[in-house]
Amino acid sequence: MKLFLPVFIVATVAIGRIVAEDCKGCVPLHTTTFDKVISKFKNAVVKFDVAFPYGEKHDEYSKFAEATKDAMDLLVGEVGIKDFGNKDNADLAKRFNVEKSDYPVVLLFTQGQSEPEKLLTAHDNDYTADNLKRLVKSKTGIYIGLPGCIEQLDRLAEEFKNSGENKRHEIIQKAKVFEETLPENVRPAAKVYVKMMEKIFDRGEVFVQTEQSRLEGLLKTKLSDAKKRSMEEKINILHSFTHRDEL
């Protein structure tokens, strides 16, 4: 018994550390601290899940937290809910209408909004870190780099979609000049930005919707891994031209 007790304590501490480090970049939120912490941030993404989460969706959320660790205006947190014992945080789930059958649920809290926005639930097929980054980026305006995207061209895309015809022509020329300064391995992505700008300039905003539908349709077909990755990166770039209220 004397030998068992120290081993048990060490094992318990080790397990506690694993749980605490499981979602790097996530802030654990509880009933007593939730409002105090959330109120300090303009935007907060929070996952509501079981007390000791695991599985593919939890792993994807952890990837999202790690990828957004440098976004100072964004809090990434998680609420662990117990439906046994003292039922920790069950009141938070009830308050925000989060059902156990939907775990893990990701909500977006924005200052000035009375209710959070539901981003993902367990029933969504595209419960991935990249999709969550796309959603948060489009709904908050916070810059979050996505695979295939280039920050400077993302910012030009943001300027482009909010400009008139004359200004858009200037931005296209800027994008072309910037493309020439990039290393060869990055230029194909830059060319996609320029091509999309030109298409939107010629066809109008409807191009964004039709192109997104086309690319998503292609993703449902049988593609090589390289081709699939290329399509996904084009969709990421296309989202840079999407107005927030379109998602």
TrEMBL record:
Superkingdom of origin: Eukaryota
Domain Endoplasmic reticulum resident protein 29 C-terminal: 148-241
Record domain ERp29 N-terminal: where: 23-147
GO CC entries: endoplasmic reticulum lumen
One Pfam family, short name: ERp29_N
Signal sequence residues: 1-20
InterPro entries with a match to the protein in the record: ERp29, ERp29_C, ERp29_C_sf, ERp29_N, Thioredoxin-like_sf
This protein's UniProt keywords: Endoplasmic reticulum, Signal
GO biological process: protein secretion
PANTHER family linked: ENDOPLASMIC RETICULUM PROTEIN ERP29 (PTHR12211), ENDOPLASMIC RETICULUM RESIDENT PROTEIN 29 (PTHR12211:SF0)
Protein name: Endoplasmic reticulum resident protein 29
Naturally occurring in which organism (per UniProt): Microctonus aethiopoides
